[in-house]
Amino acid sequence: MSPAGQEASSPEARLAALGLVLPQVAVPLAAYLPAVRTGRYVYTAGQLPMAEGKLLATGKVGAEVSAEEAALLAGTCALNALAAVVSVVGGLSSVRRIIKVTGFVASSPGFTGQAQVLNGASELLLDVLGEAGRHARSAVGVAVLPLDAPVEVELIAEVGT
């Protein structure tokens, strides 16, 4: 699909064209909500690369998990974050803009490709939301993540009234 055609279609149509569906919102692992809306903004909790209730991979990026695999997992995290947003606003078309993405990469010593890993999340958001998916971002290397996940993504979205 051309970039101009993507802009003309809805986020739901772009998601379907990518062969993706929004998953069920992941059950929180502790005492928190998957997403909270305040005014025109939705803040998501960190989303792990879960599918059908299962963590897709474990380990450190640069050791047990390749940077390429981690980028795909970051896309899954972003999809899960979109599902969390939709759970409080009702639909993808309510998203006006992704404001900020923060990604955490469980990194082996010496691994410095966190930004490339987080491109997996950023590219998914652009593919689904078009220009509304363009955002500010932080990519942070960490020693370990919950459940030994390789990557975790959270975001802030501006939504319609």
Key features of this structure:
32% helix, single chain, disordered N terminus, 161 residues, two-stranded antiparallel ribbon, alpha+beta, globular, 60s Ribosomal Protein L30, Chain: A, five-stranded mixed sheet, 4 helices
Order of helices and strands: HHEEEEHEHEE
At CATH level 3, the topology is 60s Ribosomal Protein L30, Chain: A
Give the total of domains. 1
Shape: globular
In terms of DSSP E residues, the strand content is 15-25%
Describe this protein's structure:
It is a single chain. The protein has four helices and seven strands. It is an alpha+beta fold and 161 residues long. The strands form two sheets. The protein has a five-stranded mixed β-sheet with strand order 1-2-7-5-6, covered by helices on one side. It has a two-stranded antiparallel ribbon with strand order 3-4. Strand 5, helix 4 (114-129) and strand 6 (136-142) form a beta-alpha-beta unit. Helix 3 (67-89) packs across helix 4.
Quick gist of this model?
It contains 4 helices and 7 strands. By secondary structure, the protein is of the alpha+beta class.
List the helices and strands and how they pair.
Blueprint: H1 3-8, H2 11-17, E1 35-38, E2 41-44, E3 50-51, E4 54-55, H3 67-89, E5 95-106, H4 114-129, E6 136-142, E7 151-159
Parallel strand pairs: 5-6
Antiparallel strand pairs: 1-2, 2-7, 3-4, 5-7
Helix pairs in contact: 3-4
